[in-house]
Amino acid sequence: GDKAFAEFLTDEIKEERKIQKHKSLPKMSGGWELEVHGTEAKLLRKVAGEKITVTFNINNSIPPSVEEEEEETRGQQKPDEQEPDLTSTPNFVVEVIKDDTKQTLVLDCHYPEDEVGQEGEDESDIFTIREVSFQPTGESDWKETNYTLNTDSLDWALYDHLMDFLADRGVDNTFADELIELSTALEHQEYIKFLEDLKSFVKCQ
């Protein structure tokens, strides 16, 4: 059983390598520096007295509907059919740290499932801000006791200002598009690595 499993994995890795778009991770425009720790990625940039970091994790970042369809098509696939392109749309957290304050403004953003991939609506943003809070700068654990603003019931004008505030710091639709591209490449890279680890594990006697 293990031998057949290892052979299957070898083929699967070959296939995945064939469809891999990026041999190295795509670059983000706008001078962002990238740090990757396993499945977590952090983008950093400094603008006039501020440090902006954007953190996201690729785990569970592929919308489930696509996965289910893909599972179905994988089982009974004609050789010439293209598998649907999987896209990774992770939630991401933007932290804005001003040099002279002890507080960090934290904006929790995500891609609404129905917005992604819908062309034609130039005006609509491809990501939304879900929550906003202040956290003490430099502390890794966020305080549950800090007020968190949920944007569901928010005044539109205030929400628009928050989106503009992000756009001024380089987090706009272009950024969000590139983030999807980066995250998808990272997810695929990790998936191939996982298959390779699994193969070594299965073969290990």
From TrEMBL:
Q: What are the protein's GO molecular function terms?
A: complement component C1q complex binding; kininogen binding; transcription corepressor activity
Instruction: Give the residue ranges for region: Disordered.
Output: 59-89
One Gene Ontology cellular component term attached to this UniProt record is: mitochondrial matrix
What biological process terms from GO does the record include?
Answer: apoptotic process; complement activation, classical pathway; cytosolic ribosome assembly; DNA damage response; innate immune response; mRNA processing; negative regulation of mRNA splicing, via spliceosome; regulation of complement activation
Which Gene3D superfamilies does the record associate with it? Mitochondrial glycoprotein (3.10.280.10)
Q: How does it sit in the membrane?
A: Peripheral membrane protein
Which UniProt key words apply to this protein? Acetylation, Adaptive immunity, Apoptosis, Cell membrane, Complement pathway, Cytoplasm, DNA damage, Immunity, Innate immunity, Membrane, Mitochondrion, mRNA processing, mRNA splicing, Nucleus, Phosphoprotein, Secreted, Transcription, Transcription regulation, Transit peptide
Chief location of this protein within or outside the cell: membrane
Name any one Pfam family assigned in the record: MAM33
The listed locations are:
Cell membrane; Cytoplasm; Mitochondrion matrix; Nucleus, Nucleolus
Q: Which family does it belong to?
A: Belongs to the MAM33 family.
- Name the chain's protein: Complement component 1 Q subcomponent-binding protein, mitochondrial
Source species of the chain = Nothocercus julius
Q: Which gene encodes it?
A: C1qbp
